[in-house]
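Quick one:
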Amino acid sequence: MLEARHTGIHRPPLYKVLLLNDDFTPMDFVVLVLQKYFGMSSERATQIMFQVHREGMGMCGVFTKDIASTKVEQVISYARQHQHPLACVMEENE
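Output:
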C-alpha cells in the first residue's frame, strides 16, 4: 500500500482582476471588454458593468498572477486603442 506523502507543494497565490469606474468609458465598451477578455455572457457582463458604475469597481475574475497580469495588460491596451481611459488592476485575493 502506498503512503501519502506531503510534498510541500502549495497552490500559487491568486489575484483578483478589477475594473475601475471612470466618467468617460462608455458602458457598452465595458460590457464588450468583459465578454471579450473574461468570457462573460452579455447578461453577466452587464451586471458587472453596473457594479463598476455604482460601486466604483467590479471583479472580472480570479486568476494566477501571470494570467491576471496578462488580462490587465490586454484590457488596458484594448481600451487605449479605442481612446478610453478604462482602468484595470489586479490585487492579491485574500
